[in-house]
Specification:
This protein is an alpha+beta fold and about 350 residues long. It has helices at about 5-25, 30-55, 60-80, 200-205, 205-210, 225-245, 260-270, 285-290, 300-305, 310-315, 320-325; strands spanning about 95-100, 105-110, 115, 120, 125-130, 135-145, 150-160, 165-175, 195-200, 215-220. The strands form 3 sheets. Strands 9-8-7-6-10 form a 5-stranded antiparallel β-sheet. Strands 1-2-5 form a 3-stranded antiparallel β-sheet, covered by helices on one side. Helix 1 (about 5-25) runs antiparallel to helix 2 (about 30-55).
Amino acid sequence: MIGWLLVPAGMLLALTAIWAGLALWYRLPGGNATRGVVIAIWVLFAVAALVLLWRGSTWYVFAVYAVIFTMLLAWWHSLRPSNDRVWADDVARSLIVERDGDHVTLHNVRDFVWRTRDDYDVRWQTRRYDLARLCSVDAILSYWTGPAIAHTLVSFGFAGNHGDAPDYLTFSLEIRKERGERYSPLGGFFRKYELDLVAAAERDIVRVRSNVRGEDVYLYRVMLPPDEIRSLFVAYLDEADALRRAPRWYNTATANCTTIVFQMMRRIVSGLPLDYRLLLSGYLPEYIHAAGGLAPGVDLETLRRAGHINGRARLADADPAFSQRIRDGVPGIASTSPAPIEAG
């Protein structure tokens, strides 16, 4: 092989070998011992191919490697996401949507009562909403591993009757864990998890993060016109229908809690730019603030300080007014119930 081709050829072989090793580790059936043996054989084969390459063997080294790697790719592409596995309790049911004009019925809305991560009451509800009463949207960021990485939730407010406090419904795009599984960011690149859309009460899905897991949770009122709030809510319903029809893989970079929301928003609001903060989701509030989507005239540090809800969430705890109490003092949120938006 021509000398100047050895370096890129060797790098290509090494990178594909590393990818294949990780794919085998995360997706090959069997226990750790079985996967370890298979990966060890794969590593020895890849190292041998690299050595032969540098010793001057050329076309047949690549031919053999290409055949085996193609077989591995064929296996990889044969993997299919499923809605039929033994799921963890908190993602055991899929959201089912029924629509009748402005009236929406949602089956399998989660409303668990959490005491610890592993001690909880399982509760699934059917809830009905009138889109004509949809009045607000909030972004909720839950930080669980440093400032750059956060889980993004989106919460919609519906105006109450006769001046009652708004009712909130939160959507969360996340992995659909099988029973006993734990989240691995690296595994999320290798088809380890299906994608799930959870609809839940805030006393469940927010409180479990702030009060039970001890994550740092921030809430921001997002300033969208009424028709865009409605369109975003409907986009979530469409996503729920799509996932029930055709399950999808979660991907840490391209199909996660933030990027899919961005894709939905980009269909609603033209001109939204791509940005590194969509991948490093902990910085998403900076992105929304720069786009003019948070409370006007308030600097980001003030928004962040006022939006940190952990203290208020611990005080509210099981209070039925949990959603109202965690919003106390958040810029852009009126102290009285907002008026419903007009259907657009």
